[in-house]
Specification:
By secondary structure, this protein is mainly beta. The chain folds into 3 domains: 34-174, Sandwich (Jelly Rolls), CATH 2.60.120; 180-302, Immunoglobulin-like (Sandwich); 306-422, Sandwich (Jelly Rolls), CATH 2.60.120.1200. 5% of the residues lie in helices and 43% in strands. It contains 2 helices and 32 strands. It has helices at 9-24, 57-60, and strands spanning 34-41, 48-50, 68-72, 78-88, 94-101, 107-108, 127-128, 131-133, 142-152, 160-172, 181-186, 192-193, 198-204, 209-219, 230-232, 235-236, 247-248, 252-254, 260-262, 276-284, 288-291, 295-300, 305-311, 320-321, 325-333, 342-352, 362-364, 367-369, 378-384, 393-401, 408-410, 416-422. The strands form 6 sheets. Strands 1, 2, 4, 7, 8, 10, 12, 14, 15, 18, 20, 21 and 22 form a 13-stranded mixed β-sheet that branches. Strands 23, 24, 26, 29, 31 and 32 form a 6-stranded antiparallel β-sheet that branches. A 4-stranded antiparallel β-sheet has the order 3-9-5-6, with no helix packed on it. The longest helix has 16 residues, at 9-24.
């Protein structure tokens, strides 16, 4: 049976609300923009941002917060700037995270775009990529510094968040700046695409093309942790402490001509007709980026199969476990979905310190599965789940830990299931 494409009124209201939130946020790269990126990726303990008034001796080991170096090649022709962060939310009750450049005024780091907890997001664990507008007068060509700070609900409490990477984007006047160019050749506007479609891009640059990133707009799992599911998909986080927070979970990256790739749509849920968009960002060999015009109105049509995404019903505050504790949530699968036709399932799972050396495996109903997270670091995985482990109604996800060390944090927006079904009576 074909899915109904008319959204529920509540979903429409939610989408409109999210659109208003996103519209108020810093813009990020837009079609036709020309920009350069200047990045700093922290290792050791330089990623920690601590409340300067914290009294705990363990917190004071990390004070004062370091002023970290950042080199900007040129600001000639610059029209605006913004900073994208690989940010760990840190300790619960941490408040007002901020950054500044060159001892300029502090800039607030915003919460996730669709923040949990009705404004009390400090009680939740998360990792995201906030974008902060940076006044050009805060910057200078050559050597710069940046620094973080924060407070805590208790003025002397151990407020702490993680500034793993900072990517400063400086936007330039396109007409006055030599830059790459490009366009998406295929698929064409308003085309119908099938599973794993081929994407073709034309790209050129006066200095040669270094890379091409392709991103897609659709409703799917929130890889960048901002709580927005209908979005350009992809996110930045350090895979290993101190390494670059490269773009990942996007359509793909091309490093050489011909600029053609296959979009792996394995975990992309079915979309309403004409709802998918594609865009490309082209980098020249001298580090200047150009954003193509999007291809819109695309229809993803599968043959013989449907793919559905099922979200956590409610993400608990302080969704973390240690010291002989257990926490859980539920992922509902509506009863009109015939799980006897499920042929594949993947569970999206975002953690901090989801290290199996300290914690018990997670449970999904009766299935026991290793967390496969990292030691004192963020991780995002899609775990293959046997369809037989699923049930219609509430699927109970639970984490447990006996360790007295750092807790396993389950990150906003919580786990979710993507399930592939054979076409038939019932989804």
């Amino acid at each position: 049976m074909r899915p109904c494409v008319r959204p529920h009124p509540a979903i429409v209201c939610l989408s409109l609300a999210l659109s208003a939130v996103v519209a108020a946020a810093p813009r990020g790269p837009q079609p036709g923009d020309v920009y350069r990126e200047f990045a700093s990726h922290q290792g050791g303990n330089d990623w920690r941002v601590t409340n300067p008034d914290a009294r705990d001796p363990r917190a004071r080991r990390y004070l004062p917060n370091p002023a970290l170096p950042l080199h900007i090649d040129s600001l000639e022709g610059a029209v605006r700037a913004e900073a994208l962060l690989d940010r760990w939310g840190g300790h619960v009750s941490t408040k007002r995270p901020q950054i500044r450049f060159n001892d300029s005024p502090w800039l607030d780091v915003p919460p996730p775009l669709n923040a949990p907890g009705d404004g009390d997001h400090e009680r939740y664990y998360f990792q995201d990529n906030p974008v902060i507008a940076v006044p050009l007068e805060h910057l200078k060509a050559g050597d710069n510094t940046f620094q973080g700070t924060c407070s805590h609900a208790n003025p002397t409490g151990w407020g702490q968040w993680g500034l793993y990477s900072l990517i400063l984007r400086v936007y330039y006047e396109p007409a006055a700046t030599p830059h790459p160019s490009g366009r998406i050749v295929s698929p064409a506007q308003d085309a119908t695409i099938g599973e794993n479609p081929t994407i073709c891009i034309e790209a050129s640059s006066p200095s040669g093309v270094a890379r091409v990133d392709v991103l897609a707009w659709y409703e799917g799992y929130d890889e960048d942790g901002d709580g927005v599911w209908l979005d350009w998909h992809g996110g930045h986080f350090q895979p290993i402490r101190g390494e670059a927070a490269e773009l990942r979970d996007h359509v793909g990256t091309l490093w050489r001509s011909p600029y053609e790739l296959t979009w792996d749509t394995r975990w992309v849920p079915d979309q309403p007709p004409r709802a998918v968009k594609l865009i490309a960002r082209v980098e020249g060999s001298r580090g200047t980026w150009f954003v193509t015009q999007p291809v819109t109105g695309l229809t993803l049509r599968r043959t013989g199969q449907h793919v559905r995404l099922f979200r956590t019903a409610e993400v608990p505050a302080r969704f973390g476990v240690r010291n002989h504790s257990t926490q859980s949530c539920v992922i509902p699968i509506p009863t009109d979905h015939d799980l006897s036709r499920a042929i594949e399932a993947g569970m999206h799972y975002r953690t901090w310190h989801g290290w199996d050396g300290h914690h018990k495996p997670f449970r999904l109903n009766d299935l026991v599965h290793l967390n496969e997270g990292k030691n004192h670091h963020f991780d995002y995985d899609i775990h293959l789940i046997p369809p037989a482990a699923l049930r219609t109604g509430d699927n109970v996800f639970a984490v447990s830990s006996e360790t007295e060390h750092h807790m396993l944090e389950v990150h906003w927006p919580g786990p979710a299931l993507t399930v592939r079904f054979r076409t038939g009576d019932g989804f």
